[in-house]
Prior knowledge:
Layout: E1 4-5, E2 13-21, H1 25-33, E3 41-48, E4 53-59, H2 65-79, E5 90-91, H3 97-112, E6 120-127, H4 138-141, E7 144-145, E8 164-169, E9 182-183, E10 196-197, H5 202-213, E11 218-223, E12 231-233, H6 234-242, E13 251-254, H7 267-276, E14 281-285, E15 315-323, E16 326-327, E17 339-342, E18 346-362, E19 367-383, H8 386-399
Parallel strand pairs: 1-5, 8-11, 8-13, 9-11, 10-18, 13-14, 14-15, 15-17
Antiparallel strand pairs: 2-4, 2-6, 3-4, 6-12, 7-19, 15-16, 18-19
Amino acid sequence: MPTVADLGRAANYVVDEFVVELPYAPIIIRKLRVLGDFGLSFRVADKSTELNLALIRLDGIEGAANELRRLADEHVAAMRNRSGLAWPPAPGRQASGLDRLMFHLRCGFIRDWAGWTPAMGKNRHLESVTGLPHLSGGGVQYPVPCAAPPAPAGRERRLGAGVRVGVLDTRLFAHPALAGRYLADADSMLGADQPVPHWAGHATFVAGLILRSAPAVELDVRWLLDNQHAMATTWQAARRIVEFRDSGVEILNMSFGCYTADGLAPLVIARAVELVAPEIVLVAAAGNHGDAAANPPRSQLTPRTPMWPAALPGVVAVGADAQRSVPARFSPKVPWLAFSAPGENVVSTYLTGKVDIEKSDRRINQVIDDGLVTETFNGYAMWSGTSFAAATVSGALAALTAPGR
């Protein structure tokens, strides 16, 4: 009897896009054309020869829901008579149209080619893991204005000389303390509009922590996460990650992540890591879902949920400490952690001026919404999250790195 995976409940993906192996895109397109009579249309929205993947965008997938449901039922019935093949889990009652479409495609390949199927996956949403899963509540969710920390003294100011660290994050605020210490194109710099959402200061906070551990490094800052919610898709992230190849970057900080309903790594992120890891040390935040009581209801997050890309082989996964050797409550306790570093109530560079902070608290049995609060910052903040522990580790690794090795 086929197993059932109710994957549609974890709607943290783009519902009308999926990713396929580039060489097999033509045969997948031929299979999709058969569904045109039921209102489904499609196009190749993007392709990457570096990743060897194509992004397919769909139109009318919900209109074809009844046909996709019928096809899925036919495949489930066929599984009973061909039990020797490795069939995918059947979509459950709450599955999305995309779940059913991908199930149909996979089953068709398995049936036609004796178990073979090309790699394909969803285009999932990534978020800054500072706010995951704490949609609010405590220091993890939002920054607090504070004074500047004391500057490093003596020979510490030479740590990281000749080393370049990549920062893939939100746009960067032109903070005076960072001046002359980073490379960034115009599109990766934050504009002067005020007030801005508090997420917009995420990269600036991360950059300050890296430079605090290794003051002499050069940062290569590139924009990925939007200002409003610090979000992007896995396709966008993978394209940006591979752009760091041959850039001179020796360490890449990735303070973002996503989780999946089936616990498997997103295809496109795994491919990007596989390509880049041999030449760049990849550092990623482990997520903030270690406190089960604080995880959003119906999110499917548990303290053991793998966060990607941190849980991938070849990635240095970083958890957060509340104090020396004492893990922060929100930091996941998982076997794939490589390091932990201070991540609770840490101080770093931040925005200047008016910032909109969304203060709300969503827990299992109650929702308390304090609304939008505008705070004035003077360039520094206190904030919490494994995002910032990862930044500290990226800086510490840079401080121990000899240029070119």
